[in-house]
Design a protein that fits this description.
Elements lengths: L3 E4 L2 E4 L2 H24 L3 H25 L2
Antiparallel strand pairs: 1-2
Helix pairs in contact: 1-2
Length: about 70
């Protein structure tokens, strides 16, 4: 079952399940950004706070893209 299609370095969703997974990752990252940014005092605080969540989320999305394309 193909969920994603390679597009350069990225993977685009080609099925409904792929879109749901992609939107879930984006909504999770947006929620993390808003939560971290609310309590940070500078841009650097925000970047240090979101980095581990964004990297792990998009690495998981990349892994899923490779496995399901």
């Amino acid at each position: 079952m193909k969920l994603f299609r390679p597009f350069g370095w990225f993977y685009l969703p080609v099925s409904i399940l792929g879109v749901v997974i992609f939107l879930g990752a984006v909504i999770f990252c947006l929620t993390v950004f808003l939560a971290v940014d609310r309590h940070s005092h500078s841009v650097t605080d925000t970047l240090y706070g979101i980095f581990p969540f964004f990297v792990s989320t998009f690495l998981l999305l990349d892994w899923l893209g490779k496995r399901a394309s």
